Amino acid sequence: MAMAARSAGAAARPTLPVMRTVADLRRTVAAWRAAGQTVGLVPTMGALHAGHLALVRRAQADCDRTIVTLFVNPTQFGAGEDFAAYPRDEAEDRAKLATVGADLLYAPGVTEIYPDGFATTVTVASLTDGLCGPVRPGHFSGVATVVTKLLLQSLPDAAYFGEKDYQQLLVIRRLARDLDIPVRIEGVPTVRDADGLALSSRNRYLSAGERAAAVALPTILRQVAERLTDPTRAVADETARARDALLQAGFTRIDYVEVCDAETLEPLAHVTRPARILAAAWLGSTRLIDNMPVGRA
Ligand code: AMP
């Protein structure tokens, strides 16, 4: 009977423990620490795809135990953004994580993270002056605050973030250094679909036509990145051409296409040092971001 029950569809899937409170999380991590085990943390907002799972695999390769967090953080969404509509399917996410063998899903409720009277915000200056910073006011403070909390709640050896959100990765590196949080912040290369589109939980918003047009974003960024390996070429000319090409390909609005220093995100006029091309553009009501290294990055 037990065997029959185990082989019956979903019941046969390995399950993964879920915790909802800081107290439970800390107890579990303390037991792992007492056993001499190292801990990796992978913060996510769920709607997991192969990009998230690459972070989990990397954490598992580096650490004895891997915690994945699932929290759709209200403070990083602006008014009119997609907080309410953001895809949520914890059961599906849990099943995916069980198949890659994560050790724990930490999925706190909003009041566990932001209890009544919550009044503290972490703000990282300078790195957030450009790119997504001005277009999404308050976004990076929301991210920095929640990531600081998740790091302090779990105190992992390392935490893993995707290069897909390159500005976010640098912001988190900065806050960990500035606040002396004893954690390694590791960046993981962007996982892409076969045609080059970066995987994103938001890709599911795209219609078939928009999905076909979306591939122009990585294609054009790659072409410009290649051209800019020649330091005599002006970044402004190349990014202007990229914006035109994106609009031609069906993008409806462009927030930015910029080439920046790979560490400071200072805008560059010519690529004479390690650099990154970064873009954010809209297809109808869906905003896509992408970035890649330029030249000697
Ligand atoms: P999110 O759930 O969108 O907040 O993303 C959680 C983490 O997964 C962040 O560190 C993202 O940068 C990372 N991530 C999202 N998409 C990708 C991707 N296509 N490749 C690698 N990492 C990704």
Tell me what the structure shows.
- The chain is of the alpha/beta class.
- 38% of the residues lie in helices and 18% in strands.
- It has helices at 2-6, 22-34, 50-62, 90-100, 110-113, 132-135, 139-154, 166-178, 208-214, 216-227, 235-249, and strands at 18-19, 39-44, 65-70, 104-106, 158-162, 184-188, 253-261, 275-283, 286-294.
- The strands form 2 sheets. A 6-stranded parallel beta sheet has the order 1-4-3-2-5-6, sandwiched between helices. Strands 7-8-9 form a 3-stranded antiparallel beta sheet.
- A hairpin with a 2-residue loop joins strand 8 (275-283) and strand 9 (286-294).
- Helix 7 packs across helix 8 and helix 10 (216-227) packs antiparallel against helix 11.
- The chain starts with a helix and ends with a strand.
- The chain binds adenosine monophosphate.
Brief summary:
The protein is 38% helix and 18% strand.
Radius of gyration over C-alpha positions, nearest whole angstrom: 20 Å
The strand order across the widest sheet is 1-4-3-2-5-6
Average of pLDDT: 95
What portion of the residues fall into strands of 2 or more residues?
15-25%
Q: Spans with pLDDT under 50 lasting ≥5 residues?
A: 1-10
Oligomer: single chain
Annotation field: number of helices: 11
Structural class designation? alpha/beta
Helix-residue proportion = 25-40%
The count of strands amounts to 9
Largest sheet: 6 strands, parallel
